[in-house]
Write a structure and sequence with these properties.
A hairpin with a 6-residue loop joins β1 and β2. It is built from 4 helices and 9 strands, in the order αββαββββββαβα. About 30% of the residues lie in helices and about 30% in strands. The protein is of the alpha+beta class. The strands form 2 sheets. It has a 5-stranded mixed beta barrel. It has a two-stranded antiparallel sheet with strand order 1-2.
Length: about 200
C-alpha cells in the first residue's frame, strides 16, 4: 500500500514538473510563453466557428474538423474561411470548437491543412471581429495579456466580402476545361448528325 502511495506521488510530481494538466481533459501540456506559441504555429488568427464536424468520434482520440470564418490573421496566409483539425476528445488533447464562438487559434500545418490541440495556446474570445486588445476579456475567459498581444504583433484584416481569385491552373480549372471540351464535342456531334 505504501509503495502505491509513493508511486502515485512520484507520478504527480513528474506531471507537475513536465507541465500542467488540464483537469477537464486529462491532457498534459508543457508551460509555454505566448511568444513560444506564436513561434511554433504555422498560422495564428482570430475567427468565428461556422461548422464543427466529427469525423472519427472514438478512433485514436477521434477527429474533428472545424470550419472558421477568419477576421484577423496574426501569422501565416489565410483566406476568409479556414478548416482546422483537432482530436475529438479532451484526453487526446483535442481543442473544443463550439459553433458560433470566436477563438484565437494557433495551428500547425498538417498535410494540406491545419491542426491544433488544447496545448497550442488557443483562447476563447468575445464575439465580434475587432483586433485583439488586452481589455478584451469576458467572464470565464483567459485574459489577453499585453505579453500575448505583443507576441501576436499587428494583424492583417481578412475581408469576407471578396471571394478569392479563381486559380486557372488548378484542378478545378482543368475539370472545367475538360467539361467544356466534352460539351462542345457533344454539340458538334449532334449538329453533324442532324445535317445528314
Amino acid at each position: 500500500m505504501r509503495m502505491l502511495a509513493v508511486l502515485s506521488l512520484v507520478a504527480a510530481l513528474l506531471m507537475v514538473s513536465a507541465g500542467t494538466v488540464d483537469a477537464r481533459s486529462g491532457c498534459s501540456c508543457a508551460m509555454r510563453t505566448p511568444q513560444q506559441h506564436v513561434n511554433d504555429a504555422t498560422a495564428a488568427f482570430s475567427a468565428t466557428v461556422t461548422n464543427v464536424q466529427v469525423n472519427e468520434p472514438m478512433l485514436n482520440g477521434g477527429s474533428v474538423t472545424a470550419t472558421l470564418r477568419t477576421d484577423h490573421v496574426y501569422k501565416g496566409e489565410l483566406g476568409a474561411e479556414v478548416e482546422v483539425f483537432t482530436k475529438a476528445q479532451g484526453p487526446a488533447c483535442g481543442y473544443e470548437f463550439v459553433k458560433g464562438a470566436r477563438h484565437l487559434v494557433f495551428a500547425k500545418a498538417r498535410g494540406s491543412g491545419l491542426a491544433t490541440t488544447s496545448c497550442s495556446g488557443n483562447r476563447l474570445l468575445p464575439p465580434g471581429d475587432q483586433p485583439l486588445r488586452p481589455s478584451d476579456q469576458t467572464q470565464g475567459m483567459e485574459p489577453l495579456t499585453p505579453e500575448l498581444i505583443k507576441a501576436l504583433g499587428t494583424p492583417t484584416r481578412v475581408s469576407s466580402e471578396h471571394a478569392p481569385a479563381f486559380d486557372w491552373t488548378g484542378p478545378m480549372a482543368i475539370a472545367l476545361l475538360i467539361g467544356a471540351v466534352a460539351l462542345a464535342a457533344i454539340v458538334w456531334t449532334r449538329r453533324r448528325a442532324r445535317s445528314r
